[in-house]
Each structure stands twice: as C-alpha cells, then as structure tokens.
C-alpha cells in the first residue's frame, strides 16, 4: 500500500499575492494538487504553476461544492500524491470549515498541518487605518457571520461587544444594522464597509449605522463590515479615506 500524502490547510490571506505567509507560498510552490476557494485570486494561484488546481468554491447564492465532497477529495488526493494543499481565503481557522476538513482527514489517518493566514478583518483594519481596538473606546472585538448551517438558520444573535466585524456582510449588513438599532445602538455609530480588501479593485465606504441601509449599494466581491466607535475617523486622518460620510475610495 503506497504511503499517504500530507495535506496542508493554508490561509491565502485577504487576496493580494504578497500578503500570504512565506511558509504558505513555499508550500504552494511544492504542491502537487491545490484545492482552492472561489475567493482565491488568480495572482495567488500563479504561485503554484506546477500544481493541478481544483476549484471547490462556495459563494452565496451561487452553485457551490458540497463540503462532504471537498472532504472526500482531500482524502482521495492524499492517497495519490505526496503534497495536497487546501487553499482558503483569509485564515483557515476562521469561518473556513476547517473543523469539518480536519475531522475527515484525521478519521482517514492522514497527516495534516494548518498554515495561518491574515484574516480579512485585520487586513481591512490596516487598509482603512482603523484599529479595531482603541484605548478608552473599544477593548473588545467580535467577528461574526450571518451564514450558518441550515439547522441553525434561525440564529440571529449579534455579539455584545465594542467593535463588531461582520464577514460576508454584503447581503446581511442591512439586517444587522436594523437589529442593532432596535437594540438601542446609536444611529450615528460609525461603520466602515470594505469590498475586495487588498485587491486592485478594493472599495471603502464610510457610513453610519443609520445610513447603512441606503448607502451600502450593490457589491461585486466579498464584503466585510466593521461597526463601532473605534471606526470614528481621527481629526488628521488622510483625506483620501477620511472624506465625507458615505464617500467611496477606489484604489488605483
């Protein structure tokens, strides 16, 4: 019986090729097979020209690869080639179905290693120059998503924290804002929306909780929403992103 290969769950980071870790890039260059998310960019996949690349993406409202099938592919390929990469946007351990894939690989007796990546929330904070915590203003942060398993589709609880970061917020942010307003949050609470974080077509919108429903607009890529008083602009913040409320910045 041939020896089993090893599987690496690698975080690709928010999108830009140079934001993947050195270890992640090195393993991509050695990979035999790369199973990648829909959000992984073409420039990132250029780091593994030698590998067989398989799209196993999941996008809201579009045809997606079933998670059980992805698990099976990881196990099957580990029985055929020495080095298999499961390449995920952001960090594998945050909203990345890593638990399900780790369980499948461990049950099959396949060696697996996780290589962390920069999660989009931290990349967005850097891109907008808005720290998620601020002394005297915000000492707690919660990451959450409205996407969940079908058996938990009625789970709409919003974390009680100073700064909220909603992943996959393009279609759900208005509902989140409505619930927060109903819970007594101030309408003038600052909100920063970032689309296609770190990519050439990155867009930043600066809104408030009260204006979010009207100012969000259509999205053409992954959207992350940051809410809370830590998002308030500094008095001397650079004018290219500290323009009037509802302004949009388009990266060159």
UniProtKB/TrEMBL annotation:
One of its GO terms (biological process) is methylation. The lineage of its organism: Bacteria, Pseudomonadati, Pseudomonadota, Betaproteobacteria, Burkholderiales. Belongs to the precorrin methyltransferase family. It is an enzyme of class 2 (transferase). One of its GO terms (molecular function) is uroporphyrin-III C-methyltransferase activity. This is uroporphyrinogen-III C-methyltransferase. Signal peptide: none annotated. It comes from Rugamonas brunnea. InterPro entries: 4pyrrol_Mease (IPR000878), 4pyrrol_Methylase_sf (IPR035996), 4pyrrole_Mease_sub1 (IPR014777), 4pyrrole_Mease_sub2 (IPR014776), CobA/CysG_C (IPR006366), Siro_Cobalamin_biosynth (IPR050161), Uropor_MeTrfase_CS (IPR003043). Keywords: Methyltransferase, Porphyrin biosynthesis, S-adenosyl-L-methionine, Transferase. Pathway: Porphyrin-containing compound metabolism; siroheme biosynthesis; precorrin-2 from uroporphyrinogen III: step 1/1. Residues 6-212 form the Tetrapyrrole methylase domain. Its EC number is 2.1.1.107.
């Amino acid at each position: 019986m041939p020896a089993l290969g090893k599987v690496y769950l690698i975080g690709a980071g928010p999108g830009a090729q140079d934001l993947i870790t050195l270890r992640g890039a090195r393993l991509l260059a050695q990979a035999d097979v790369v199973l990648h998310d829909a959000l992984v960019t073409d420039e990132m996949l250029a780091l593994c020209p030698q590998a067989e690349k398989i799209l196993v993406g999941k996008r809201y409202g579009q045809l997606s690869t079933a998670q059980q099938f992805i698990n099976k592919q990881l196990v099957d390929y580990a029985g055929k080639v020495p080095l298999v990469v499961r390449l995920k946007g952001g960090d594998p351990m945050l909203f990345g179905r890593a638990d399900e894939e780790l369980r499948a690989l461990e049950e099959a007796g396949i060696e697996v290693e996780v290589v962390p990546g920069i999660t989009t929330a931290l990349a967005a904070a850097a891109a907008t120059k808005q720290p998620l915590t601020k002394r005297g203003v915000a000492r707690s942060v919660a990451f959450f998503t409205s996407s969940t398993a079908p058996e938990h589709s009625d789970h709409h609880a919003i974390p009680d924290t100073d700064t909220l970061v909603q992943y996959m917020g393009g279609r759900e942010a208005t509902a989140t804002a409505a619930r927060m307003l109903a819970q007594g949050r101030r309408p003038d609470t600052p909100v920063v929306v970032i689309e296609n974080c770190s990519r050439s077509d990155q867009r930043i919108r600066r809104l408030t909780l009260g204006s979010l429903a009207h100012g969000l607009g259509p999205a053409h890529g992954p959207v992350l929403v940051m809410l809370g008083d830590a998002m308030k602009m500094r008095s001397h913040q650079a004018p290219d992103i500290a323009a009037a409320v509802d302004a949009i910045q388009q990266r060159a």
